[in-house]
Amino acid sequence: MSDKCDANALGYPIYFNLSIKDVYYSYCVYDELLVLFFHSCFYRLEPTKVTIESYFTLRTHSPELFTKRDTDLKSVLEAFKTISFCVLPGSTPDGCKVIFIYAKRVEAELFVLSDFIKALSMVIDMLLMTSGTFNGLIIIYDMKGFSLSHVGRLGINMMKKYVYFLQDGLPARLKAIHTINTVPFIDMITSMTKPFMKKELSEKLYYHSAADSETIFDYIPKEIMPIEIGGSGQTLQNLNDDTFDKVKAMRKWFLEEEKYRVDEQKRLGKPKTESDYFGVEGSFKTLNLD
User: DSSP code of 1?
Assistant: First the structure.
């Protein structure tokens, strides 16, 4: 596979020419990943250095999210069976890639937030490693079937890690997060993340109620959206299967990737711990609630 990449900030397309097989033998801070970091930071050196540090520190201190990313493990398979991750084909007119997410199984007891974040990280890594640079990443959540029972399964510390992952730990330009079939209690969820969400991320959130479902097409062309959502693209089943097959094909890469983490003993200054980076699990002391 060799996907053409969109023009980067300097006006030149970057070709990775990576197939799934090639990715098997890639390691963490290799040239392709450095290109992704530079591109995501618009080729500015200092922000790139900060992003690289955040990327590896987050992964080091979140082993529940970034280790055992193995599609042969039951917990990972269950996550992909419960939540569907669909990388839409092609790009938006401004060169963004789109990931569409919806629940295949809506029972709250089947939803495990840490496993969801782990699965999403695998899909994003797969997309980055096989597509090269692109103008931006858009995530769409279909909240159909999401209930107050699901909210009860959203721990503060894990939500905080989720926000940090999206706003600080991606070697990609996150352009927007859309929710469709938005639930009435979305403000309850937003209030959990607001204290540690940067303004730049909060301004990228868009909500579309079930009554205004067509408004998503003001941002994403119907041609690439799933048929079931009113688009004219592929079916959700086909998109789901294609995405999971690509993730599964990268199994060896994921197992190799988790070996590359921060050695805190070599950090300049005091080594960081998980509580230094995220605060104390289950505590509201680090939050500034309105």
Answer: -
